[in-house]
Amino acid sequence: MLLRVTHVEMLTPNIRLIRLQNPDGSPLPSFKPGAHIEVGLPLGEAAAFRKYSLVSDGGDGTCYEIAVKRNAFGRGGSVFLNDALSIGDELEVSAPINEFGIASAGLHHVLIAGGIGITPMLGIASRLKQAGMSYELHYAAMSRGDMAFHDALLRDHAGRCTLYFTREEPAQRLDVQALVAHHRDHVGTHLYVCGPGSLIDEVRLSAEGSGLARPRVHFESFGPAWSASDGTVRVTMTESALDLEVEPGTTLLEAMEAAGAWIPSDCKRGECGACIASYTGGRPLHRDNCLTEAQRAHSFCPCVSWASSDAVLLVQM
């Protein structure tokens, strides 16, 4: 569906809130807290679709709101939405997709957010509060100035919200292992995490190491996270005798498929494990959310992971 931009607002120096509505003002498809939409962006000859969490709880059927952090080293979507998009512009937008919602079996809900990962947590926390359910929210950012929705969270979730500022003095850091351990034996408690891959990884692996049951941990990620330090990667597919050079902005999965390899894949977010590949040399930079530490010693997910630029990645394909 084609939606119009009706409001934009800078929440921090590099996070922009964008409101989308039907041009004729008619209601939009409903959604549950934690849902996301796919937005078509003019980044090439055809529209490139990017996924963004909806920040509300779904109670307002007249608009969708997303908050987008500008990443100069990404694939261009966040730069376009922050720098080029204006009120009155129209974008192709999917109906909401629900893959990260409130666990019906949960008696207590622990929400963990890092940076822009706060976006789906806003609607989830709002719905939990309205329903009178037990919850707590832990939110980390570099500083108060980098923390989107800072004032609203303190106002709306006072007493249930703990904020962490990792680059202020003194630094306040979230102790993930302690938090997971505290809730490990509370069988009705569910954990939710969204944010940088490193935070999702820390929560997931801490839960795994502590014996917390996997169905009690829920996470949301939207695919590869690029780093300013990423360089050109050389890949040798040992069974196919193919040598590739892959530039940042193209995933290893995309490059290997373009070279003729057939690799099963599904989520392309490093969550399902369908594309897992084995390697015998090189140094993968693991950015998935599904492999254990033991598996990472010999396998990686090419849909999201990258590799060190100073050694050839030898892939058994």
UniProtKB/TrEMBL annotation:
InterPro entries according to UniProt: 2Fe-2S_ferredoxin-like_sf, 2Fe-2S_ferredoxin-type, 2Fe2S_fd_BS, Beta-grasp_dom_sf, Cbr1-like_FAD-bd_dom, FAD-bd_FR_type, FNR_nucleotide-bd, MRET
Stretches assigned to the 2Fe-2S ferredoxin-type domain: 231-317
Entry keywords, A to Z: 2Fe-2S, Flavoprotein, Iron, Iron-sulfur, Metal-binding, Oxidoreductase
EC number: 1.-.-.-
SUPFAM superfamilies in UniProt: 2Fe-2S ferredoxin-like, Ferredoxin reductase-like, C-terminal NADP-linked domain, Riboflavin synthase domain-like
One Pfam family matching this protein: FAD_binding_6
FAD-binding FR-type domain location: 1-103
Record-linked PROSITE patterns: 2FE2S_FER_1, 2FE2S_FER_2, FAD_FR
One Gene Ontology molecular-function label: oxidoreductase activity
Designated name of the protein: PDR/VanB family oxidoreductase
